[in-house]
Amino acid sequence: MTTGTLILLIIVAAISGMGSVLDEAQTHRPLISCTLVGLVLGDITTGIILGGTLEMLALGWMNVGAAMAPDAALASVISAILVIVGHQSIGAGIAVAIPLAAAGQVLTIFVRTITVFFQHLADKYAAEGSTRGIEMCHFMGLLLQGIRVAVPAALVGMVAGTDTVNALLASIPEVITRGLQVSGGFIVVVGYAMVINMMNAKSLMPFFFLGFLLAVFTNINLIGFGAVGLICAYFHVKSLARELNSGTGGDNTIDDSDLM
Amino acid sequence: MAEKKLTKSDLVAIFIRSNFLLGSFNFERMQAIGFCVSMIPALKKLYKGEELKSALKRHLEFFNTQPFLATPIMGIIAAMEEQKANGADISEGAISGVKIGLIGPLAGVGDPIFWGTLRPVLAALGAGIALTGSLLGPLVFFIAFNVIRLATNWYGVMYGYSKGTQLVTDMGGNKLRYLTEGSSVLGLLVMGALVAKWTTVNMPFVLSTYVASDGKQVVTTIQTVLDSLMPSIVPLLMTFICMYLLKKGLNPLVIILGLFVIGIAGYAVGLFA
């Protein structure tokens, strides 16, 4: 790997790491992260395919409240490097992604704990009326999150593709890589389960079964499901409004502008 | 004394900074620094000296909500601080009260809409296209998600500021509940479809082989039996088992590892392919 490529790789890794804490532009999601690594390393197609595969695994990984999701950033960046530079299979990429997601989670918990120090530093700057100081504390926290992915990416970038690493990856038996790819077909159910649990709406589960049955017995595509979902949501909210309004006894007319 | 007024460019500065709200997330006060940094353009305009110091201090208090829906709070607080700076009788407690009072309900709406519905749906759509190696997959996901997100952040700040504390009373009504329930209906319906469409379980394990009366060989595998009963029943059951295990407090990574073990063992004995 040339120095130029390595520098670009470090930048992409840092963007992914920062994205993992910001959760705004979604640059930490495998779909984006692996594509960017692929672009930098000159094999964007492999990056996109690996990104799509890992995205399915990570569909339900989300930070809700103070709960921490497995880390998609480190998993995507490192496995994309190993697969693309070392010409490994997608199955090998999945195999390394899962332990990396756990390792990344530990790293980000570590950084979020260190950042408590900057929180107290910010208090000091506030007492001095220094807005620059507070902004610096904010930026340092973000920078640390970038570094926590960039440094491992640089280290792996330097050794990836060497005979030792390739031999190591090649020593993973075929039954494991093929088995992982098979599991890749259904591992996404963990993500679905996380999302459904998060919604925590037992009384709305009939809509889940409706979606399931329509998908099994028809050929409606995802756009169609969105449209059916909106219609169901409209009727559900309408009946909810009727229920709530009649409960208060007052007038029963429903103002449609309330529903939108 | 001239009236202190926030301009459009101050609000734009808040909007830009709101995109970095979570940068310094920490386990003590979570998004506190990020909220303070987002408010700095307004605070600097409105206060000087000791007043600025106490304003900075009150916005370094605990803050944590769904990041995109933090923006209406920023708008409301900007409006409140503007009134306070012009001598209105608004106590520090009232400002903190609005912040703390809104983070819960807004997270309650934002989490199912953005994390529960919008992102999984767009990601599943993008990932499905990406598996064919097309750049369209990541692009569809990235552009669609970010257009919606930026629009939310922009209108959040602007709407929050223009409505001010009026918005707090509005949100007390049923509108938030309608929005939450409506998006949960949409999200669950699409989730049900995804369980069936975007999972692959193939069990070619042969149960019996016989020659039918017309001379054709008929092979019955676990998969053909399941398909005749209810296609995609296996991923559906797996989803429910996962929901149960997650509710029991099992780490999702442990469940993922468990499914990998099942996949590898299943492939080794010929149950899965």
Automatic annotation (TrEMBL), chain A:
Topology in the lipid bilayer: Multi-pass membrane protein
A Pfam family this chain is assigned to: EII-Sor
Signal peptide, first to last residue: none
Origin superkingdom: Bacteria
GO cellular component terms given for this protein: plasma membrane
Transmembrane segments: 39-60, 72-90, 96-118, 180-200, 207-237
Cellular compartments annotated: Cell membrane
Entries under NCBIfam families matching the protein: PRK15065.1
Entry protein name: PTS system, mannose-specific IIC component
Protein source organism: Propionispira arboris
UniProtKB/TrEMBL annotation, chain B:
Broad class of the protein's primary localization: membrane
GO cellular component, one term: plasma membrane
Listed transmembrane segments: 121-148, 185-208, 228-246, 253-272
Keyword list, A-Z: Cell membrane, Membrane, Phosphotransferase system, Sugar transport, Transmembrane, Transmembrane helix, Transport
Name of the protein this chain belongs to: PTS system, mannose-specific IID component
Membrane topology summary: Multi-pass membrane protein
Subcellular location: Cell membrane
A GO BP annotation: phosphoenolpyruvate-dependent sugar phosphotransferase system
Organism encoding this protein: Propionispira arboris
InterPro entries associated with the record: GatZ_KbaZ_carbometab, PTS_IID_man
One Pfam short name: EIID-AGA
NCBIfam families: EIID-AGA, PRK11103.1
